[in-house]
Structures are given as structure tokens and as C-alpha cells.
Fold this protein.
Amino acid sequence: MSARDSNRTQLDSELLRTFLSVAKAGSLSGAAARLYRTQSAVSLQVQKLEAALGQRVFERHGRGVAMTAAGERLLPVARDVVEMLNQVATDLREAPDEQEIRLGIPEEYGDTILPSILATFTEAEPTARIFVRCSSSMEFPRALAAGELDLALHSPERVSKNDVIVHNERAVWTGSAFHNVENRRPLPVALFDKTCWWRERCLDLLRKSGLEYQVVCTSQSISGVRAAIAAGVAIGVLPESTLTDHIRALASAKLPQLGETHLALTGSPKRPRRLAEKLSAIISRTFQGK
């Protein structure tokens, strides 16, 4: 073996995982976000990979990176190697029953936060199965107690000692981006129709405000409330992070202040501990990045 060969960086799985993330994201910055690393750290990993191969795997350009011919040749091999290592690690684990986890998440985060959580979790645990229940927060404590869920993200009225707060969410009055519904009297309001502390709090605040209002739409799901708001039928209350291009936060001083709610993670005593800890960490990081 020559001195040059002995000094060459070894081709390890960490470099291949970074290569696959950059290839999938199409940029160093995109891969850095997926890997929760700095862009400079990802760039250094790519440089080490290219040093080990003796040629470039990416061509840099203004908007990101494109694979070279060498990168194209490496791509299927890297996928096979990483997949094989993941499978071996799974086979050697002592607790195969921990390959399934059941998560409850509020419906309003189903098309905003949840995709990022699922993408990161499945990349970190490619052989694990995750079952997701998107519904009202108030259903989750019962589901946890009944053993139907392993982990739930919810907004409890009172945080218990077993809850882990992952995010403080500001609740806001919202209306259609294309209508001035907040100027109508009586004020049309859309609410979730199931008994929950947020519904009662909104009604209590409206009564105390002295505003003339009327509940014109109720729905068993948050999507129904959101549709009524987007259509200009009524105003309603939503978490600030779940607003869309069709829904805007209302700045009217006449509307009562709603304050913040706590988003907490609660685990079942029988949850698969390793997967629950991994998923909890991913959920916390996802909300920190918002």
C-alpha cells in the first residue's frame, strides 16, 4: 500500500448517509436541515467523501448542487450499503417488539408539522412502523390510558408532571384572507362542536367582551372550522403556526386576547421506550425550528 493510499480518508457509512441526504435535498443547506447539522459540517463531510474517492460527487452551483457522473455511480451503491447497515442494526437489536409506535397528533398539525416529523422519523428509523391518529387533543388522554396510543401531542388545560412541553403556541382569532368578516355584527363565529376547554374559553371571552356574536358554524373536526374561516363564513380560533395562505390572523382590538397554550407530549407507561424517546426528540426539534 502506498503512503498516498494510507493517508486517504476512509469511506464510512456516515459519509454515505450525508451523501444521500445532499442528493435527496439537492443542496448542502437542505441536507443540513434534514440532518440537524450546520452547513459547514455537511460540506466537510462531502469533502471527506470526495477525498476518499479521489473525485467530485457534486458540482456546486448558485441554487444548490448537481451530481457528477461519479455521484450517479455512487448513488445506488450508497443506498444499498446504508439500507443493509440499517437492516443489520435492526436484526441485532434485542427488542424487536419495539419496532412499532402509535402517535396521536392534533388534526390542525396534520398538513403543516406532521409531514416533517414523519420524514425525519422514517429516515432515522427506516424499519420502524408508525401509526398516526389525527384527531382532537381532548381524545388523547383516554386513548393513552386505554393503551390505544404510545405517545400523544396535545394541549391539556393543565400540564401534569408527566407531560413534556415541546412548544408554547399562541392562539389567534383568524378570518378569511379575502373577506373582512370581523366587521360584521353580530360577529359570526365558527367553533369546534365537541365539549372542550378551548371552546368554553372562547365563548366565555366573547361573552365578557360585550361583542354581539353568533355561532354560525360548528364542526366535529378542525378542518370543518378551518374551511368555514377560509370561505369567509365566520371567524374562529386557530393555533398561530397552522395558518395558511387563505387564512389570516385578525388584529382587531375589539376581539378578546386568547393567550398561549402549551403543546405537551405525554407517553403511555407501556410505550416502546427507545422509539418513543427518538420520536419525542424529533417532535421537539421540529417545533423548535418553526
The mean pLDDT is 85. The first strand starts at residue 58 and ends at 61. The chain has ten helices and eleven strands. Residues 98-168+262-288 form a domain with the D-Maltodextrin-Binding Protein; domain 2 fold (CATH 3.40.190.10).
